[in-house]
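Minutes, structural biology subgroup

Action item carried over from last meeting: produce the C-alpha cell record for 8-amino-7-oxononanoate synthase (Methylobacterium indicum). EB confirmed the sequence was re-checked against the source entry. Recorded below for completeness.
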Amino acid sequence: MNPIFADLPTTVFEVMSALARETGAVNLGQGFPDDPGPADVRAKAAEAVVEGWNQYPPMMGLPELRRAIARHYAHWQGLDLDPDAEVMVTSGATEALAGALMALIEPGDEVVLFEPMYDAYLPLVRRAGGVPRFVTLTPPHFRLTEEALAAAFSPRTKVVLLNNPLNPSATVFPDEDLALLAGFCERFDAVAVCDEVWEHVVFDGRRHRPLMAFPGMRERTVKIGSAGKIFSLTGWKVGFVMAAPRLMRGLSKAHQFLTFTTPPNLQAAVAYGLAKDDAYYEGMRADFARARDRFADGLTELGFRVLPSAGTYFLNLDIAPLGESDDVAFCERLVREHGVAAIPVSAFYAHRPVRNIVRFCFAKRDDTLDRALERLRGLAPGRAA
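Output recorded by EB:
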C-alpha cells in the first residue's frame, strides 16, 4: 500500500460524526445543510434522467453546461471565459483539485499551502510528488502577510493552492491580500490553483473576487467551483474547472484518466440552475446569513467568544476563555457530555496547529440550532453583559 494514504489516520470528521450517531448528539460537525436543495433543480435532474441522454457525455462536459458556466462567471465575476477551450466539468471539486495537482506538479516541485486547509490538499500534493511549503494563518482574521509569503516561496515553487473563502476559518480574503499573493505568483512564475467552492456563500454585502481577475493572473490561474455548494446539493459532486487553454490541455488529460466524465442528468440540471436569476443567489445568501446570525447571537448571549464569519457554512468559537487549550479533547467532551458535535480546527493544520478554535456548521434548521444552543448552555461561561 502506498504509505501516503495507507498511513493516514481516521479523520476527525469521521470520528466526530460516529460519536454524534452513537450519542444522539446534535451534529454541527458535518459541513452540509439540512435543506434538500432547490426543488426545480432537482426536478430538472429527474426529468433529464428519464427523458434525456444517459450514455457517456463529452469528456469536457455537456456543451450546454460549459456555456452556462461561462455566462454565470461573466455575470457574477466579470470573467471572459471561452466555454470550448477554458471550461471543464468534473465529478466534484475534489476531483478537480486532484487532477490539477497531478497535471501541474512534477516530483520535487514545491507547493505553497495555507493552513488551516481542507484535509485532502496535503495527501494529494504528496501523492503527486509535490513538496509542501506551509503558510500558517492565525485567528481571529487569518490574513496573508508579505513576511509569511516570502518565507514560503522559492525558485522551486510551482503551484500555490488557495481556498477562498476559507474553510474552516470562514474568512473571505480582502483584495489587498489577494493582490499580495498575485504579486508573489508572478514573481516566482507559479500557477495558482484556487479552490473557490464557497464563492457564492458570502455575507454582509460581500461579492467574491476571484484571483484569476487580478492583474497578471489570467494565464496562471486554475479556478475551481462547485455546484454542490452553489445549490446545497453536496451529494451531486459536479465541479467546474476554468483555466487558460495552455493549462487546460494538461488538466483535461488528468481528468480523462480519473473519472472521464460526470452524470449527464446532473450536468443538465446544473446548467438550468446556473441560469437562475439573481434573486435565487441573493435569497440563498440571506438564508444562510440569517442562520449564522441566529447561532452567533445565541452563542454570544451565552458568553462564548465567537470569531467573525464572512462566508461558508461555518462559525468558529475561541475556547481559550473557557480555560481550554486542546480542541480535540474539548470536542470529544462536547459531544459525549453536552450532546453537540463540532470539529477541532487543529485538524486543518499540518505542522503548527492552532488548538483553541472549534468549528460549527450553522447551515441547519432553526430547531437544530436552538437545540444545540440549549445544550451548550451547560458549558457556557455565563451570559454576556
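Discussion: The mean pLDDT is 95.
Next step: EB to file the record with the rest of the batch.
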